[in-house]
Amino acid sequence: MKAVVHKKYGPPNTLQIEEVEKPIPSDNEVLVKIYATSVNRTDCATVRGIPFLTRVGTGIFRPKIQISGSEFAGVVEETGENVTFLKKGDKVFGFDDQGLKSHAEYMKISEEKAFSIPQNISFEQAAVSIEGAHYAYNFINKVDLKTGQRVLVNGATGAIGSSAVQLLKYYEAHVTAVCSGEHMDLVKSLGADEVIDYTREDFTKIDQKFQFVFDTVGKSSFFKCRPILENGGVYISSDLGYRAQNLFLPFITPFIKSLFENKKTVFPFPSNIKRSILLIRKLIEEEKFQAVVDRKYALKDILEAYRYVEEGQKLGNVVVKVLEKNE
Ligand SMILES: NC(=O)c1ccc[n+]([C@@H]2O[C@H](COP(=O)([O-])OP(=O)(O)OC[C@H]3O[C@@H](n4cnc5c(N)ncnc54)[C@H](OP(=O)(O)O)[C@@H]3O)[C@@H](O)[C@H]2O)c1
């Protein structure tokens, strides 16, 4: 089968499409014929081996998992002996930030990590529904969000941001979204109550206060956002920030309450992917969540997809079609 192989860390041109052995599922695994996958920021970071600390899990000098890909949608083709609830022909999707080797024609996966695809979406849509939404849900989970609270989402057009806007509206928050002018209509269609064009206005200087600021693209800082946080407000970023400050501030800000007017930083280490997938699947079925899809690439052009995603300007998510004829 064809697979996208990375034998060393580096930029997208270190990836190669190669013929490799088709995986054989163990007793608790299923073999999935992949119809569609995504290239997301998790894949880009894994292929480059950054931040360096993540190599403790992925391999210090070279990647332990040498086929890229973390998200997939496809059909179960074979089941291991102890597989109980999935069967041949089932349509499944999934995500794992530790890597699934899903940039390939086939992959094997434990049946616990493969979830049935909602009937109302295509393989392509399913393949990009989880990564951004999982991180967005983890942002929301880390705080005690109440109905009607005011939340600002910076980067509302990205994979995480476009998911965050939809999830926050599901939890009935009041959402102010920040994006460039050309994407304001899209962000309004996702449910944002107010939209700020960052090319015209610096959102950190507006005369409004928010209970939460979610910077989903890591372009601001706690210190810049302090003036727009209410007393007791919380700043969360998807990025480590200058000198990894977002890792340290959560320990410092709660102890110097008077200096920071009770405002604090929270850094979400994403966890519990299954919980995220079950919520996302339910919301897709209820038509309350839809992943934003940008460009689509064929598997043979996946390096182009990586280069595009690394530019940091994608609109939502990028699909890789593994099967050309795909629902
Ligand atoms: N290390 C990891 O494993 C990992 C995994 C996932 C995500 N992340 C981090 O999380 C962040 C978000 O990921 P993502 O996939 O959601 O991002 P993304 O989809 O790549 O974000 C792209 C969007 O960012 C917006 N943007 C660019 N510059 C902006 C600015 N100055 N202000 C506001 N918006 C701006 C663009 O919107 P406009 O067209 O409107 O400008 C574009 O639509 C990234 O920083 C990424 O590194 C890290």
Tell me what you see in this structure.
The chain is an alpha/beta fold and 327 residues long. It has two domains: 2-129 and 291-321, Alpha-Beta Complex (Quinone Oxidoreductase, Chain A, domain 1); 132-266, Rossmann fold (3-Layer(aba) Sandwich). It has ten helices and 15 strands. The protein has helices at 41-48, 55-58, 123-127, 131-141, 159-170, 184-189, 222-225, 245-252, 273-285, 302-310, and strands at 2-5, 16-19, 29-39, 71-79, 91-95, 106-110, 115-116, 150-154, 174-179, 194-197, 210-215, 229-237, 264-266, 293-298, 317-321. Strands 3, 4, 5, 6, 7, 14 and 15 form a seven-stranded mixed β-sheet that branches. The protein has a six-stranded parallel β-sheet with strand order 10-9-8-11-12-13. A two-stranded antiparallel sheet has the order 1-2. α6 (184-189) links the parallel β9 (174-179) and β10 (194-197). α4 (131-141) packs across α5 and α4 packs across α9. It is globular, with a radius of gyration of 20 Å. The protein starts with a strand and ends in a 6-residue tail after the last strand. The chain binds NADP nicotinamide-adenine-dinucleotide phosphate (NAP). NADP nicotinamide-adenine-dinucleotide phosphate is lined by residues 40-42, 45, 132, 135, 154-155, 157-161, 178-180, 183, 198, 216-219, 238-239, 312-315.
Furnish the topology, listing elements before pairings.
Blueprint: E1 2-5, E2 16-19, E3 29-39, H1 41-48, H2 55-58, E4 71-79, E5 91-95, E6 106-110, E7 115-116, H3 123-127, H4 131-141, E8 150-154, H5 159-170, E9 174-179, H6 184-189, E10 194-197, E11 210-215, H7 222-225, E12 229-237, H8 245-252, E13 264-266, H9 273-285, E14 293-298, H10 302-310, E15 317-321
Parallel strand pairs: 8-9, 8-11, 9-10, 11-12, 12-13, 14-15
Antiparallel strand pairs: 1-2, 3-4, 3-6, 3-15, 4-5, 5-7
Helix pairs in contact: 4-5, 4-9
The structure holds NADP nicotinamide-adenine-dinucleotide phosphate.
